[in-house]
């Protein structure tokens, strides 16, 4: 019996293939943000998206974080030691790199996110650069490798979940990378990494290593399974560019009320207040436009002031007068670097960073 | 445009039909308990299963609960008034009536639960019988109707979520029915009914009306959509028996570690501690048996003392010596009334109360 007997290579679904039992198993474990929860500035516990590659580890309060490799003073810190260091709180919108995957045609077979793998939290922790300064980074260090306690097999490879960051990112302050021990003022929930996780504002979720137990600096570029997995590829044998920063997205709170099964939205004729959130990990969001006619015409939305939360989503509002019939609503975000959401689907084998505009079917009934 | 144009009757999937986009939409919103979270006596926030028929309503702290219909003194209570009454805390295992639905063949098309739609919480609130005594139930009242603030369409019928209980159950103390305002000591999370929900220990989830805003006593038996929907039927035109109490189930924490996609479990040869939970809403669980060979032989598990929590799951433990190869593990619960989990699938059109024993595929590798 080999691991590769039941832990298979990545694949793309056949055109006629419904969602598989394996994908449903992942969808039942992990979960997205119900879109009406976009109404909260900070996502309440249990509504923030969660993706766990393997199992949620059982963690005790005697947890230790080790920092080693190419450092002058290897460290082993308990939670008390971390909490005694200066703390920073950042409001961060976190999105899974696979958000939008199950809407792709053809569909890469993996966690079948539709469009709701997002959430915003206030993360409190120790700036990583402070910890690394204390450990003393050697001049020849190039990458910083983060190891979580979650253990499993993926495409035939047994592993602890591991991701690397370049030293310049890990020791930088834009974004400020955190070793976080609190979410919305409370200890991390088990599924969000209790007791410690990495938070890398602006980067997709795969970089935010949960159940963080070791940080190790390497003198050669880190080549790990997850580093190789999260890349943009059209063909399996390509090297591909790495998946890193969150591309822009706007989401609309679906108006009216839903049909239970189809989630079609129902409204009655008259003015409807539309509201949603928009974010980008590349640059601040500067514009949101809305369409009520499936993209034939676009109207600017009112974007809330950025305030002090560079890494959090921004609220936007627009109005619409509903008339009887079917309508297709979308919103589209653009950021300060001119990145805008595509109107035609992007595609890659991993199903990463699919920020095609959301499509909300609304039926206006006259009774 | 009619509601019935997009809000369709119930149906059963074709034999070859994969999970549909509609079912995936529900799976992405709602979520189960990742089975490793069976390790916690009380399920941490965000890991307890959630099913929301329509949208999570926006609720404010000025919420009021009205009690009316066939009572002598109609009441309108704010949260402060409820919290000033005597409070009771009960540890309750809650399970969705549709748990196990997506494992059925053929598969009823609805929320596609596999086996994880369960959780246990400490619910605090006012006993319903205390509120009803204060309102003074008229002698001719037969049913108590509970209305939530969640609004939607289901199979062509626009509705607020509503369920009824017979007066004898609502005014009884076995089980003690609660109007709950706290979960695990904190205000209810939005998705669990903030600020008020009903808790009916031993009954499936559909009875535990969330976002509770009205209680009304009727002099005729209540006939509502959800009352008609949650019934055991083989054919759509049958009346069917109502779905009420939770039938017995044991769940095993899947041993070892998983493959990311298939969730196949991997262990290495040697002794393995098996652990899980078992519950029944019909009577206390009195026995759990375990098989390591797909049901050819069954071995008794050690069942933890019941303690003071009649309505909560019980922990069980067993040991197993893994040898290289594939193994099929199951656990089976029996309660004090002799109800035991079936070894062949039960089936009904709604996909309710499918407590067929769990099957955990384990691969023991020799390296």
Explain what the structure shows.
- By secondary structure, chain A is mainly beta.
- The first copy, chain A, has two domains: 3-242, Sulfite Oxidase, Chain A, domain 2 (Alpha-Beta Complex), CATH 3.90.420.10; 249-364, Immunoglobulin-like (Sandwich), CATH 2.60.40.
- Chain A has five helices and 22 strands.
- In chain A, the strands form five sheets. In chain A, strands 14-15-22-21-17-18 form a six-stranded mixed sheet, with no helix packed on it. A five-stranded mixed sheet of chain A has the order 2-1-10-5-6. In chain A, strands 3, 4, 7, 8 and 9 form a five-stranded antiparallel sheet that branches.
- The longest helix of chain A is centred in the N-terminal third of the chain and has 9 residues, at 21-29.
- Chain A is globular.
- The model of chain A has no long low-confidence stretch (mean pLDDT 96).
Highlighted features:
Immunoglobulin-like; mainly beta; 2 domains; 367 residues; six-stranded mixed β-sheet; five-stranded mixed β-sheet; Sulfite Oxidase, Chain A, domain 2; homodimer
CATH level-1 class of the largest domain in chain A: Alpha Beta
Tell me the domain tally of chain A. Answer: 2
First and last CA, distance of chain A: 63 Å
Q: Compute the gyration radius of chain A: what is it? A: 21 Å
Helix-strand pattern of chain A: HEEHEEHEEHEEEEHEEEEEEEEEEEE
Largest sheet of chain A: 6 strands, mixed
Alpha plus pi helix count of chain A? 5
Helix fraction of chain A?
A: under 10%
Just name the CATH architecture of the largest domain in chain A.
Alpha-Beta Complex
- Work out the largest interface and the residue count of each chain: A-B, 74 and 74 residues
SS elements, strand count of chain A: 22
Mean pLDDT of chain A, to the nearest integer, reads 96
Silhouette of chain A: globular
């Amino acid at each position: 019996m080999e691991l590769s007997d039941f832990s298979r290579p990545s694949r793309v679904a056949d055109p006629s293939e419904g969602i598989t039992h394996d994908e449903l198993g992942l969808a039942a474990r992990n979960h997205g943000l119900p879109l009406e929860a976009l109404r909260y500035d900070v996502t309440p516990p249990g509504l923030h998206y969660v993706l766990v590659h393997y199992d949620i580890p059982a963690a005790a309060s005697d947890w230790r974080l080790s920092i080693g490799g190419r450092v002058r003073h290897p460290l082993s810190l308990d939670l008390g030691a971390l909490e005694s260091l200066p703390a920073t709180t950042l409001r961060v919108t976190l999105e899974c790199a696979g958000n939008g995957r199950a809407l792709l045609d053809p569909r890469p077979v993996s966690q079948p996110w539709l469009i709701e793998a997002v959430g915003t939290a206030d993360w409190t922790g120790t700036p990583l650069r402070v910890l690394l300064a204390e450990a003393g980074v050697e001049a020849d260090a190039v990458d910083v490798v983060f190891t979580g306690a979650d253990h499993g097999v993926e495409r035939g490879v047994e592993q602890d979940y591991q991701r690397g960051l370049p030293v310049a990112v890990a020791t930088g302050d834009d974004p400020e990378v955190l070793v976080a021990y609190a979410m919305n003022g409370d200890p991390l929930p088990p599924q969000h990494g209790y007791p410690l996780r990495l938070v890398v504002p602006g980067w997709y979720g795969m970089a935010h290593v949960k159940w963080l137990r070791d940080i190790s600096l390497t003198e050669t570029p880190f080549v790990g399974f997850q580093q190789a997995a999260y890349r943009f590829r059209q063909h399996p044998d390509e090297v591909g560019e790495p998946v890193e920063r969150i591309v822009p997205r706007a989401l609309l709170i679906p108006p009216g009320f839903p049909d239970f099964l189809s989630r079609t939205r129902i409204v009655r004729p008259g003015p409807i207040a539309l509201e949603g959130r928009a974010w980008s990990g590349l640059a601040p969001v500067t514009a949101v436009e809305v369409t009520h006619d499936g993209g034939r015409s676009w109207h600017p939305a009112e974007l809330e002031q950025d305030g002090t939360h560079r890494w959090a989503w921004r609220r936007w509002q627009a109005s619409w007068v509903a008339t009887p019939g079917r309508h297709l609503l979308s919103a589209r975000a653009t950021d300060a670097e001119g990145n805008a959401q595509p109107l035609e689907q992007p595609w890659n084998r991993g199903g990463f960073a699919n920020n095609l505009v959301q499509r909300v079917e609304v039926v206006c009934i006259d009774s």
